## 1
Amino acid sequence: MTMTSKKIHPVMSRKQESRIVRGLLIFTSLSFLALFLFVPLLAVFYNALREGWAMYWTAVSEPDALAAIRLTLLITAIAAPANLLFGICAAWAIAKFEFKGKNLLVTLIDLPFTVSPVISGVIFIMIFGAHGWFGAWLAAHGVQIIFAAPGIALATLFVTFPFVARELIPLMQSQGVDDEEAALSLGANGWQTFFRVTLPNIRWGLLYGVILCTARAVGEFGAVSVVSGHIRGKTVTMPLQVEILYNEYNFTAAFAVASLLTLVSLLTLGLKKLAEWKSREIMLERGVNAATLEG
């Protein structure tokens, strides 16, 4: 019992800092949070509601705003499941198998983190735009990708595809392959092994990755701005709608739409903390059980 407590709370055994240092660190942290997090959040909701609920409802229910909300939800509904599938496949291959090019695959998964979203949007224009590599062929067959929903979906997929894979790879590597090999030795097939052994062990990490992917898809601005064409009511997502309204000095409507994005962010934060807590609880339980078995 004593050894377990030391592992769970290692900070308790460290030398305690003086009250002045602790107070200064806490004050500095809270000051930064208040200045750069709480005040901007409050400003969004204050400006969105300062002319009353009626004006707020009018701003978020006018046709262009509703079209932006629908397009944002559509793009998110495409990006999240696609990244869920890719993340599971990539993490499974990297964590469970050895093959040539494995390190290259891990590096390429991180590529969207190193490329500016604006640059990724320009890349898609170079490939699918009117003067791009496939532009003439697409135009001849009546297919429009750039300045349309498919281009926005592609740009969003590019900037969001590392999130699920990056969350699952270290989790699945830490779990090893013992459970899967035990299931296979008892006669389970591949699908049964995945759904009854692997998936329950990674479900909270998977949810965490999907939450991060969804939040990024909803709020993506740079790449979507390049490929969308800013056609109101057709190719404008919620972040672009906020920009358009703000540039038109329609501040109340801009903050009203921004408040919806902020609510999504707060909901995402709550779900993220729940997934973190459950994932940490499972890992801790597995660690304690393993320590008990080893003992």
Note: Residues 46 and 255 are 9 Å apart (CA to CA).
## 2
Amino acid sequence: MTDQDDNAGPTRRSVLKAGIAASFLCATGLRPGEQQAQAQETARTAGAAAGNAATITPVSTHLRINAREVTLDLDPRTTLLDALRHQLALTGSKKGCDHGQCGACTVLINGRRINACLTLAVMHDGDEITTIEGLAEPGVLHPMQTAFVARDGFQCGYCTPGQICSAVGMLDEAEAGWPSHVSQDVTATTVELSDAEIRERMSGNLCRCAAYPNIVAAIRDVAEEA
């Protein structure tokens, strides 16, 4: 079939082609030839960028992870979470939102909790890092892990490593007298860990299964036994 028969007007196909061409011109402001030139320029720029990426020099980074000394040669753009999961096969820290909003990647750095997806590995040269794999002793769970099991503080379990690391860090912060957003007296040197305090201090860790009541109960158990 041709775009136009000898004895007929424009065919449906020719009308569609004309419509597409008109829409293309309206959307880009470029004629087909100009668009091709722009596409070639875009490809050239992308190729140059890829070439620049290939020349990035790895940075030697020394980390102490779960009481083990590790030295890695890292692309300086590597997040701590990706270094843990991809370079060291420590997959307990989960990649949830990858934007620091869910807390599934929480680890302890020098005893303080942090979202591993929001920090670069090279920023922690020489730091002490504890992941969920490093909390337990061989054959003995960490008290917080035991409490989560006893209280059934998890359902699908995806958020659980981050919840437990965050809970351990949170108890240390409370013990040090750090106030939270719901603390009545921000100058107090001791913190009474009410359910409201625990919920507020754990608010950076989301649980899609909504096991929150059991998580709070588990943390309260550990706080009371300490």
Note: Helices lie at 12-28, 32-54, 80-87, 143-150, 160-175, 195-201, 212-225.
## 3
Amino acid sequence: MFSILFPAVESGIIYAIMALGVYLSFRILDFPDLTVDGSFVTGAGVAAIMLVNGQSPVLATLAGMGAGFIAGCITGILHTKGKVNPLLAGILMMIALYSINLRIMDDRPNIPLLGQDTLFSMFRSFWEGFGIDKTLNSVFTGIGLDPSTWSILFLMILVTFAIKFFTDWFLRTEIGLALRATGDNKQMIRSFSADTNKLTVLGLGVSNAFVALSGALIAQYNSFADIGMGIGMIIIGLASVIIGEALFGIKTIMRTTLAVIGGAIIYRLVIGLALEVGFKAGDLKLITAILVVIALVLPKILENQKERTRKKRKRAELEKMYAVGPEKEGEDVASTKSDSQSV
């Protein structure tokens, strides 16, 4: 069981970077950005084509991230300068990216990366020199957890938390605060002479850069890039954000970004468990929809239940007070009469 869930945790941490990008556009900017389905493949395609042409895995990954940034900025420009509806701007960019991604991938719908040097194989060569896998497996073999390497998990924890801390820092800077204010109340932030158009373009660029980085890493993790790998990615990102927020709360930015990472891992774990118990791959979309519905509806049910309990307790306290009030009044009168007689 643990050996089956381990890859789910690994991929969940990689998808968490994509979920952080969706969080920036969906929650911070309040922008329903469907570019995600295309920019995820853009990152994967750029990284894959550079790897098969002998480029450095680090350079290929960064180039994929940069391509995603450009795609996000174009969506922002379509909305801010072209006055295109946010939803339509995202759809138009997503459709355009399908053809662009095919061009990037040299008109090949699938680019295999087997036998190519990737970021993970490069880090694994460095990791094996320390003998950490042997030590960890000697500890965890007893519970059935003995993956071939822990290097991917370790590397992705480092990368994902670096992105998380960057996001936390960025949203506290002057530009980040203006970005948050743009999502909350665009008219108010305009009254302070802030250029909301530039902020929107920048926010969408950073959001899609994260998404494309996740795509570049997933391509290297799965050892292939496919033109259809981005389908439904926006739903997976939203599911991760909503599940994380529902389970871990949103009191601070640091807690919320951590919740998004947790939500992405839990989502992949649930998908892994569903496949383990016998669900077909075609059922995963339905499972995703059910998860999102549960994450959306359950907090409201719990909140309503809490509110009813609070009102019930308040009503009981008032009834008790009114019930005790006349008796206490009577006792006060009797006490007054007794005092007067004694005098």
Note: The two ends are 85 Å apart (CA to CA).
## 4
Amino acid sequence: MKTPFIRDLISYRTMLLMLIPSVLFVALFQYVPMLGLVMAFKHYTYSKGILGSDWSGIENFRFFFISGDAWRVTRNTVLYNAVFIVINLVLQVGIAILISEIKGRWFKKISQSVMFLPYFFSWVVVGSIAYNLLNYEHGTVNTLLRTFGMESVNFYSTTGIWPYLLVFFSAWKSVGYGVVFYLAAIMSIDQEMYEAAETDGANVFQKVWHITIPCLKPTMIILTLLSVGHIFRGDFGLFYNVIGNNGLLFANTDVIDTYVYRSLVQSNEIGMSAAIGFFQSILCFVTILVVNGIVRKADKDSALF
């Protein structure tokens, strides 16, 4: 006698076979590399390999925390990502609503294309654009300042201005991509609700506030949850290519990922780098559990699980 499980396997055998490549891909590239986490607890040496290296317990974690850099890079990573999430969310939703309200078809298409274009630039290109804009001697900004009789600004030695510049470059590159999601969500809203609101005399702002934003709420929550899951992961491409290896700016711009990279490349501390990465993953995992739990209590249908 066939059990329900066996019957389901037979009934959905075609779809299950189609699923095998995806499962193998995830297992091979997502789960098998997790075995390397064992290096966080070892004195790794090339000659002995991962399994043959001596155990070090939590010494690699202890070295990271007593170095005095743990709090700085963790604080920078969380604060930058929190600001990125809030600023990008507000801009993406606001611009998507504005575009949806514009009647000109060609203007809508051109504005979407212009905003979406920076997403395809690599961070290397963005770093080059930033350098050409902000270079002390030949940068566009300083050239304009000198043209108007003002003093040049040495951006690459002024730490206080970089949090604003990084937020700007992050928004410039990623807002267009997020706008596409919210525009798609707006297009799926039942137009009869807008027609009913117009019949009742609602103006544009009332329709946006009482219909569009509530309908966008599930999309906003899901995309924010996915972003919060990476709140302890700094965007290495952004921070390394725009800032470079500039020690003058590390106090305000160094994040966990750039710190791990320098530890690995400059001091060859593979064990400590693995320990920091492990610490980072645990924080991300706990964060997504906590935030998802909060969302589930507030609105069960909007939670990821």
Note: The chain has 15 helices and two strands.
